[in-house]
Here is the input.
Amino acid sequence: MKALVTGCAGFIGSHLTERLLKEGYEVVGVDCFTAYYSKNIKDNNLYTALNHDNFEFINKDLLSIDKYPDVDYVFHQAAQAGVRASWGKYFDTYLEYNIRLTQKLLEYYKDRNIKKFVYASSSSVYGNTDELPMNEKSLLNPVSPYGVTKLAAEHLCSLYCTNYSMPTISLRYFTVFGPRQRPDMAIFKFVSKILNDEEITVYGNGSQTRDFTYVDDIVEANFLAATSDVVGEVVNIGGGNNITVNDLIKQIELTVGKQAKIKYIDTQKGDVKNTKSNVTKARKLLNWKAETNIVEGLDKFIEWFRENKYLYK
Here is the structure.
């Protein structure tokens, strides 16, 4: 079996690439090392894969490629990430890499008899809702341009499945965390600043909640989605680690043995108040469930961070 992983040098993409190689797949990985964060970080993410005989790396912008590799599976992880940066002058970038790129990949592979196209979507498509936990039939009302683009790409996957019988499946990730996570993400910033005795910034009063999902559980969901017979579906992938931002900080303080210096500021446009996933569908269709709780996941992340913090100086 041969798989394409877009965004292979990123947080989730690099973990997924390694899992596929471990399972015996040939993997073609594509990444263009955008300036969103340091290339050195992504180089380190790819270290293991680049030393594997069954891995081929293509360092190109996916939008610039006319002929994509012949594969059995496509894992579309590449995207322009970040809710807060998706407003204003950067919106064109989100349109290009979250919508147009997805359409280009779907259009290319629609006649190529692939076994599965797995699309990485986001809980951001739900927006603010009083209906918790969020389920796949909940009203979709994203409150950020980022969320709008992820939802649009979901719809494209559905359209190609309906009209071209393309075997697509979309996975809605809920706040992924773990080793290699991006430096702009909350857990990374909190851990880094607490360890360095620096002030951390919390948007709002810290009572907002997030459903954190450990990266290995996300990877498992991708693998199960690809190898299942399920097509044309949208599935929540949430870890069940629902916790307030304030309690998350307390848990980090306990784990690292240091107290946080916290500055509370106004909420940001596009931030949702609460997320909590209903994963009944994932259990039923994919036989998936999260295995890593927030305490265990934080332990693993902090251990990794201590070993790799030199990359972020």
Q: What stands out?
A: The chain has one domain: 2-177+213-239+275-292. The mean pLDDT is 94.
